[in-house]
Write a structure and sequence with these properties.
single chain; alpha/beta; Arc Repressor Mutant, subunit A; D-Maltodextrin-Binding Protein, domain 2; 2 domains; 8-stranded mixed beta sheet; 42% helix
């Protein structure tokens, strides 16, 4: 019978392949070569006398045995890490690591975290932001918020909110905008993390993106919204981000149109963590918070609120 100590290293590699979504990513995360990853998997299969991975085109898929081992190893390693931290005088529970784009962190997640801490004082949350919208793999993270349709294989995904792009600007700028064509005379504030947002919105109202030449690039949507509040131009961003700014009147919605796609923003984690504390508690809270927000948005953000413009003499 194979002794556990002989396969601990290969099990760590198998767990990393599952967590990272591939052998190449696992190699990068473990700081070893892809060849070393393959060697460890062959060693594991030899010791077990069973296959844990099979080739599917250019990808690899887990066998039933491999998936059971990978998820079980993840739970075991996590428990060991917690015990080691406790023995060293640290917290018995590592913080939940959440990876998001900056605008979502600043505009939506951070303002709501106080509510989570009020209900769950025993759980810490560590938020990491990414430089690219497509950098949402489950590498060094327990959760990611990912844009798409929720159909990612071997990952658990729950919808937070739909992809709905709306415009936002200061009341003074809104006074000049009565139709979509009026945007052609305004500075459009463009997030470089989501550079296609303006194209999507303009196309949805029948305007060719190339018609507009006054695009002002900024690092992310949160900066675009700050600039818009100062009267520097018009921003386009997710409707879910803007409840606070719209409610206070700092920003208004110059046109009622929203560009809606079939995508959404999803909270994604590994299958093994979906129903296990503390991850399940965080997931339930965040999904419930998002749904409560979106249920309130239709009345709170009715178009007539934002088409009201300041009187000019």
């Amino acid at each position: 019978m194979t002794e556990l100590r002989n396969i601990l290293g290969p099990l760590r590699v198998l767990e990393a392949i599952h967590r990272c979504g591939g052998m190449g990513r696992a190699a990068a995360q473990l700081h070893i070569t892809p060849g070393a990853v393959s060697h460890q998997i062959r060693r594991l299969e030899t010791e077990l006398g069973a296959r844990v991975l099979v080739k599917s085109g250019r990808q690899v898929e887990f066998t039933e045995t491999g998936l059971e081992l990978a998820t079980g190893a993840a739970e075991a390693f996590e428990r060991l890490e917690a015990l080691v931290a406790k023995a060293m005088g640290g917290s018995a529970q590592a913080p939940i690591r959440v990876k998001v784009i900056p605008s979502l962190a600043i505009q939506w997640l951070m303002p709501r975290l106080a509510g989570f801490y009020a209900e769950h004082q025993d759980i810490d949350v560590e938020i990491a932001t990414v430089a690219r919208a497509d950098d949402t793999e489950l590498i060094n993270a327990d959760f990611v918020v990912r844009r798409g349709r929720g159909d990612w294989r071997d990952e658990h995904a729950e919808l937070l909110f739909r992809d709905e792009l709306v415009l936002a600007c200061s009341p003074a700028v809104a006074a000049r905008i009565h139709t979509p064509a009026d945007l052609l005379g305004e500075k459009l504030l463009k997030s470089m993390i989501a550079p296609g947002s303006w194209d999507s919105w303009l196309q949805s109202v029948g305007l060719a993106p190339g018609e507009h030449t006054r695009m002002v690039p900024m690092a992310n949507a949160a900066l675009c919204l700050q600039a818009a509040a100062q009267g520097l131009g018009v921003a386009v961003t997710q409707r879910a981000y803007l409840y606070g700014e719209f409610a206070t009147g700092v920003l208004v919605r110059p046109l009622p149109h929203a560009a809606v796609s079939e995508d959404g923003y999803w909270l994604v984690c590994e299958m093994a963590k979906a129903h296990r504390d503390p991850y399940a508690r965080f997931s339930r809270w965040l999904v419930a918070t998002a749904r409560q927000d979106m249920a309130q948005l239709p009345s709170a953000l009715a178009p007539e609120i934002f088409t009201t413009r300041p009187q000019t003499s």
